[in-house]
């Protein structure tokens, strides 16, 4: 299983990162060891600036290579909201030097994935949001993504074969921020809570 993450897929997030809006989807990978399980999250010591990025996440249900956009939704069986956790200080160093991002993005437990929902419940108009200590910090909907899920599945699968159980994080809306010890982060799809974690 692998985790594919799309970067800069919402205009306002690209702006807050002072990054250009891409012409093609930008993606990077996290390994299986990036998955976090359990309620408590122990923050890594190698970063002083761990950021949340709330994102819609989709699960691949059959193998595919060079999938055409019109068939893409047939390869997805579930979705949820997750966190693409990012060591923003390490990422800034990598960006400055033009180096790959893995230490900032692919470290152990850098991916939080909520409870899976059946893809039949997916609605591009439905809001998802992230609460930090019961305050809304990020809110988005699939309709505002620069690249749609079928475009993403088609593009990524030209380069990398998708396999059963692979996950695609589809980018974060604006409002990313730092996580502090003691924070409780809760993700919602519509009114449904799909994950809740306390950070230590
Ligand atoms: Mg992200």
Give a structural overview.
There is one protein chain. The protein is α+β, with helices and mostly antiparallel strands and 200 residues long. The protein has one domain (3-199): Fumarylacetoacetate hydrolase, domain 2, CATH 3.90.850. 16% of the residues lie in helices and 35% in strands. Strands 1, 2, 5, 6, 8, 9 and 12 form a 7-stranded mixed sheet that branches. The chain has a 5-stranded mixed sheet with strand order 3-15-14-10-11, with no helix packed on it. A 3-stranded antiparallel sheet has the order 7-4-13. The mean pLDDT is 96.
List keywords for this structure.
4 helices; 200 residues; binds magnesium ion; 5-stranded mixed sheet; Fumarylacetoacetate hydrolase, domain 2
Kindly estimate the percentage of residues that lie in beta strands according to DSSP. Answer: 35-45%
Taken together, the total number of domains comes to 1
**Average pLDDT across residues?**
96
H and E string: EHEEEEEEHHEEEEHEEEE
- Total helices: the number is 4
Major sheet size, sense and barrel closure: 7 strands, mixed
Oligomer: single chain
Unreliable parts: none
Radius of gyration: 16 Å
CATH architecture: Alpha-Beta Complex
Question: What's the structural blueprint in terms of helices and strands?
Answer:
Blueprint (H helix, E strand, L loop, with lengths): L2 E5 L3 H6 L9 E5 L9 E2 L8 E3 L1 E7 L15 E9 L1 E2 H10 L4 H4 L5 E3 L3 E2 L8 E6 L2 E7 L7 H11 L7 E3 L7 E2 L5 E6 L2 E8 L1
Parallel strand pairs: 1-12, 3-15
Antiparallel strand pairs: 1-2, 4-7, 4-13, 5-6, 5-12, 6-8, 6-9, 10-11, 10-14, 14-15
The site of magnesium ion has 8 residues, from strand 1.
């Amino acid at each position: 299983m692998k985790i594919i993450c799309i970067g800069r897929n919402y205009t306002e997030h690209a702006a807050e990162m002072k990054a250009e809006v891409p012409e093609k989807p930008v993606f990077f990978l996290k390994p299986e060891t990036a998955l976090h399980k359990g309620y408590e999250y122990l923050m890594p010591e190698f970063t002083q600036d761990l950021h949340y990025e709330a994102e819609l996440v989709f699960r691949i249900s059959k193998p595919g290579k060079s999938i055409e956009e019109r068939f893409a939704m047939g390869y997805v069986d579930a979705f949820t909201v997750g966190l693409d956790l990012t060591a923003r200080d390490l990422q800034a160093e990598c960006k400055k030097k033009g180096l790959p991002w893995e230490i900032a993005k692919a470290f152990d437990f850098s991916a939080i994935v909520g409870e899976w929902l059946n893809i039949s419940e997916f609605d591009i108009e439905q809001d998802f949001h992230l609460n930090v200590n019961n305050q809304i910090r990020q809110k988005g909907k699939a309709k505002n993504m620069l690249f749609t899920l079928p475009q993403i599945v088609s593009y990524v699968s030209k380069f990398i074969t998708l396999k059963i159980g692979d996950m695609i994080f589809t980018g974060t809306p604006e409002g990313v921020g730092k996580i502090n010890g003691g924070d409780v982060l809760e993700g919602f799809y519509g009114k449904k809570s799909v994950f809740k974690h306390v950070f230590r």
